[in-house]
Amino acid sequence: MSNTTGRTIAAPIVMLLAVVVGVVTTVALDLFLLHWAALLIGVTLAFALVAVLAPMTPDESRVGADGTREEGTPLHNVLVVPMALVLAVVGGLVSSWVLDLQLLEPVAAALGALVGSVLAFVLFHRLAAMMALSFAAVLVAGVIAIGVTAAVLYFSGIPPLATFDRMLEYGTRPNSLVQIINESTTYYLAAVAVAIGFKMKLFNIGVDGQYRLAALMAAAVGGYLVLPPVLSQFVVILTAIAVGGAWAAIAGYLKVARGVSEVISTIMLNAIATGITAYLLTEGRLAVEISTNNIGTPPIPESGWVPGIPATFLGSEREIYGLIFLSIAVGIGYWFMLNRTRFGFELRATGQSKTAAEASGVNVKKMVFLSMLFSGMVAGLVGLPQLLGSSHYYALDFPVGIGFIGIAIALLGRNHPVGIVFASLFWAFLTQASGILPFDGIPQEIAVIAQATIVLTVVVVYEIVHRWGRRYQQQQIGKQLGRTTETTPEPATVSHGNGPDHGSAENPEDANGTPGGSDTDGTDDKRGGEAQ
């Protein structure tokens, strides 16, 4: 889009106008309509205002990641604009729903409209085409997964709409929300551990064994070694990191020293870790009797616990794991390492092409080993939120299989620290929401079908749209370069002989009398290239 009238409106003013339109419309319509319908209309009108005023809104930084200008292109108009509208409306609705847990409905709707209106401006002017393609892929995959799950329910004689409604109602209860947050905390750590390996094209299948062995040893240290507060938590966390990293380093060493596939070695190490855990978790070694039918490590003293966060703001009497801040710190560190450090650059470069990385001076074997080491160190943290926030000992009923769930979530979140957050929450929601189904006589495996389907469809659909987007992006770059070549005059050449100086500064016309040394049939372009 271009400013054809010559008039401009400052971007902050446009955003303020959008907020006013969105909030006022929502508040007014809330008197006659349901709050979600009023919010949807309000945010849509705010987005329409932003789109109308876009030609008069100066925004020279609105370019894609490849440097090409996207606004006004067919891809932007067909994909980016609708996707920005959908995301703005969804953001407003989710914000209103969360705020409605503590505030009055009209106030929550107004604040949700404010959030949606701000998102309408930001996304319209900042959402890149490739990011919009990613969101579109997830949306399409979600629709396909819901369709497949609904078909399975229908042919099983179970009403799909009633089942989905039941899951949504149960999964959004206050206590369910706390459980979803707690489960997603552990899922997130497992997925980041897997994603570090994926960035190097390494498949760390051994996260499950790494975190279980690390949790066992950390629980034993915390239970047998009584230390003051803070120091106790620090020692337990450090033990888990060390054990997880050391166990993954075995696979890394075998990979670089003997060429053993990390897939095979980590699977075998999972089996070995299971055997070691079973051997150590017996009475007379590391375990004591916890109850009549359960044994585990000695309970960690209260001084070694990590206090939970009261969830009264969600309307629940339960507590959110205090180590959720550890997951946040790991996510920030993962992003910073990938995008702001030399190691992260070499990690991504090696994952893209080992031969090119070696040619650039990167020690590929060192990168492989360190990637497995860091992946195992993060994997060692997976069991700690449960250990220090809830159970306080490692027993026979300690959660298992989280490492394999982390693989699916890393794929679903495209190995991105923010994408993994939403993937973890979605996975935990399906797991929690399906818990009510057996009481209604519906198989709980419906959630497993939905989870597996959406992972498969996200991977396939994302690859399809991503490749198409890359081709489209390359075509746009080619067109822009072509326009630049047509509008940029050819550089002057210096003659080094007695022959005619075609196209030189002193001889602006060529032998045919054509200005600029260019013939209509392109022959002089060829001669100019040969001269240069």
Task: Explain briefly what this protein structure is.
This protein has 532 residues and is mainly alpha-helical.
Mean pLDDT: 85
Instruction: Using the CA coordinates, give the radius of gyration.
Output: 29 Å
Fourth-level CATH superfamily of the largest domain = ABC transporter involved in vitamin B12 uptake, BtuC
Number of helices: 19
N/C terminus separation: 39 Å
User: Class by helix and strand content?
Assistant: mainly alpha
Strand content: under 5%
- The gross shape turns out to be globular
Q: Could you characterize what this model shows?
A:
The chain has 19 helices and four strands. The chain has helices spanning 11-29, 35-53, 74-99, 105-126, 129-155, 160-171, 174-199, 207-224, 231-258, 262-280, 324-340, 342-352, 354-359, 364-379, 384-391, 402-412, 417-433, 446-487, 523-531; strands at residues 288-291, 294-296, 309-310, 319-320. By secondary structure, the protein is mainly α. It has three domains: 11-56 and 71-127, no CATH class; 137-158 and 447-482, no CATH class; 176-441, ABC transporter involved in vitamin B12 uptake, BtuC (Orthogonal Bundle). α8 runs parallel beside α10 (262-280). The protein is globular, with a radius of gyration of 29 Å. Strands 1-2 form a two-stranded antiparallel sheet.
Keywords, please?
single chain, 532 residues, mainly alpha, ABC transporter involved in vitamin B12 uptake, BtuC, two-stranded antiparallel ribbon, 19 helices, 2% strand
